Amino acid sequence: MSGDFSDLLIEVRRIVHETAKGIFEELRREAHNTHPELEDIPVIASDFTLRGGKRLRAFLVLVGYWSREWGKSIDEVKYLMTGIEFLQSYLLVHDDIMDRDEVRRGGPTVHVWFTSRCREKSLLGDCSHYGISQAIVVGDYLESMAVSTFSKLELPANAMTKLIQLYTRGLRIVSYGQYMDLMLSMKPLREVDEADVLLVHKLKTASYTVELPLHLGAIASCKYSDNLLHELTSYAIPAGIAFQLRDDLLGLFGDPSITGKPVGSDVREKKKTLLVIKAYKEAPPPYK
After folding, report:
1. What is the domain partition of the chain in residue ranges?
2. How far apart are CA 254 and CA 266, in angstroms?
3. Rounded CA gap, 140 and 171, in Å?
4. pLDDT 10s digits, 80-107
5. Structure pTM?
6. 172-216: pLDDT as tens digits
7. What is the CATH number of domain 6-287?
8. How do 103-104 and 107-108 pair as beta strands?
9. Rounded to whole angstroms, how far apart are CA atoms 218 and 34?
């Protein structure tokens, strides 16, 4: 293993891909046997999830799992690693709707995909609305998949209870962050300050991108303590905020062929990033 953990990350990606692929194949059969038309749900959910992604959250689940005993069997936590990626897909599907993004991970966002399917099938009505509506369904479907993977973990009852409690709290925290993000986008720049933006980054990104995966992994190890969870949080929050600040820069100046995301969508949607807030405060009065 190299010192920068790149080999381990590659292995995490492989395990998550294989595990998720197997789960999607099972669900595709389930959907088809219920009604052939329903197969679109696992098909696009699978494509969206497996077409790319850094798998950072899955990697951090493993780091949390190994926080008291480095090198334990990855097989014991592979479903939790995969489940956190289902959560990521669920949040991205809904986030893409709110941000009106059309590209994600080098392919169409789920609502755009369903809009195209509506037209291909010559369905009646508003295909754009149909696309958004079905994407919401797929997001909910992916979240159910995340929870379902937890049932495959062989954990004592007290650890499973703690895991579910932290997972559901994590979802609430992300909801608070998303709410504030949308609200701030509707406010004039003069009413938004850096503290508002950093709070959104803490609630929306740091909480579920870094803190939640580390906590879930630590709990799954059954060797956690409240002190360990606090220590992980002390790292996770600033690291998660830094991750989002970098992502904001890539969203404005990054190469879409590398990032898989369109450039400038945050500006078009009037997102109050720290970059925008800084530019506004430093701009001469005529340019505010």
Report:
1. 6-287
2. 13
3. 13
4. 999 999 999 999 999 999 989 999 988 9
5. 0.89
6. 999 999 999 999 989 999 999 999 999 999 999 999 999 999 999
7. 1.10.600.10
8. antiparallel
9. 38
